[in-house]
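step=predict obj=Polygalacturonase-1 non-catalytic subunit beta-like n=625
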Amino acid sequence: MHTNTLLFCIFLLFRVIVAGNSGDSINPFTPKAYLIRYWKKQMSNELPKPWFLLNKASPLNAAQFATYSKLAGDQESLSKEISSFCSSANLLCFPDISSSLEKHGQDVQFSSYMSKNFTNYGSKLPRGFDSFKKYAENDNLPVNSFRQYSRGGAGHDDKFSTYAPNGNVVDQSFNTYGTGLSAGGVGEFKNYAPNVNVPNLRFTTYSTEVAGRKQSFSSYTKDTNSGDQSFTSYGRNSNGAINDFTSYANNSNVIGSTFTNYGESGNGGGNTFKSYGSNANVPENTFTNYGADGNAPFETFINYRDKSNVGDDKFTSYVDDPNAGRANFENYGQSFGEGSDTFNKYGSGITDAQTVGFKTYGVNTTFKEYGKTGVTFADYKNKTINQVSVSSSVVSDKNAKNKWIEPGKFFREKMLKTETIMPMPDIQDKMPKRSFLPRVIASKLPFSTSKIRDLKTIFHAGDDTQMGKMMLDALTECERSPSAGETKRCVASVEDMIDFSTSVLGRNVVVRTTENTKGSKGNIMIGSVKGINGGKVTKSVSCHQSLFPYLVYYCHSVPKVRVYEADILDPNSKAKINHGVAICHVDTSSWGASHGAFIALGSGPGKIEVCHWIFENDMTWAVAD
């Protein structure tokens, strides 16, 4: 037999062996084929392979694998090919948007439109209006830039309605929007960015030096998950400008808003925050140099951060040395979980003719250099979470209390019994779909906060972009010191995850996840239940996704747990719809007293065990039975 023929036969045999039970023929030189071989080498058991994990391997073919492995060693070269690399490797990357030279008439409606750079658009337009309706709808990675938009207009209206709905990792920039002595007109953001995941919205030098222009933010980023919004030099040096924030960031989860030099040196006009951040989970709002040297007749906060869970606000040099007007806080910050507000140099130097009023104001608050005259406190509650839980009327509302603790998110171990009917939370993975990088490529890329600038260069991420913040947040969490008794590691490849898990548990391990998302957000019936390792207290390794351009998992060892598998049934037909994996933490003594589990279940640290389901694309490792 010729040598070439023999090699070809060996190649075909090897290809079949590598494919194994996957049902696909796999080229042995691809990252996935290498991973399968690595799994077989590291595992000491012959249990079925976890295809839900192995299928997260890089989709690069053999030629691409070789090309990008070489490019990864030269970051400048890889950066030049980042678009093709992201596409081939199934990564999360933002598009590079080029400037738009399109010309538009006076009145334009943008519908079903996305990912554009509107530079110098609408400058010096007299009257008329532009409408952005259902713009960037359902776009996975909407990136839009509005630079010098509507600059110097006179009586020109801009309406953003149902803008960027249902987007995932939204990045929007409004730079010098409506500036340059714009006169009159209305800028309306209505139902802007609803139901989006991890938004990064920036308003820089927005409505600066305008006269009599009204800006309205209504139902802005409602039902949003995580993310940040920043207003820098917003409404600065404006005359008679009115800004309304109504239903802003309501029902949102971990949203951060920053107002820097907002309304500075403004004359007349006023600002109203109504139902701002209500029913939100851990909102973070920072007001720095807000209303400084201003002559606005009013600053009003009504139902601000009402019924929210935890959350923190910082007011630094807020309405400092104002010339006239009033600031009212009505029904402010009545959170059911303990938050904190810091007022530093708030209203210092105000005169007897001015007022700062607090009515039904309830938070855990610090006042420093606060105005001593013209200040009224009515029904002010400076209480801890324990006091609020006893006396606050807000907490007595059970629905409000559990607003951000989904029914079924935490439960007691006794619920894991056949025929138990219980609610199941939404276990669906909300993160963008991505793949792991092969270890040989991931190991060549910078992966630390000290190298964040190199990472930004590779992935074309600016200093104030969602991509940059996303990477920094993930790396910061990876570098956080472990909790007491925790062993942790961030893994950027499946091989790294295998190595970490086997280093903690040994090589005779099984990795499990909940089979699908059926039963989510509804009632389920528990079918047959199996305790892993005989239901004994054991150790496991749990892995959770981080938001990063490629798949990165935060893995940590969890001591003193019991792991269960359970069939999940439809409560009406009793038909099996899912196979769930649940983990019960037996020792909760090191958990914080304000942990959502204790709010949902009652009790406190170390007094009860707490169980939860393993969500879609998360996983837990345990010693094999």
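step=describe
The chain is about 20% helix and 30% strand.
step=end
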